[in-house]
Amino acid sequence: MKGSNAKPHIGIFGRRNNGKSSLINSLTGQEVAIVSDVPGTTTDPVKKSIEIPGIGPVVMIDTAGMDDFGELGEKRAGKTRDTIKKIDLAIIVLTSNQFGTPEEQLLTELKRWDVPWIVIHNKSDLAPMEKGLTDQLPETGGGNVVEYSSVDPSNKEQVIGLIRKHIPETAYMKKSLVGDLISQGDLVLLITPIDDEAPEGRLILPQVQAIRDILDNDAIAVVAKEREIDTLLKRLQPRPALAICDSQVFLKADASVPPEIPLTSFSMVLARYKGDFDNYLRGTSALSALKNGDKVLILESCTHHVSCDDIGRVKIPRWLTQFSGVDLSFEVVSGLDSIPGKITDYSIVIQCGGCMITRKQLINRLRPAIEAGIPVTNYGMAIAYMQGIYDRAIAPFLHKDQTQTNYL
Question: Which domains does the chain have, with CATH numbers?
Answer without folding.
Answer: 4-171 (3.40.50.300), 187-270 (3.40.50.11420), 276-390 (3.40.50.11410)
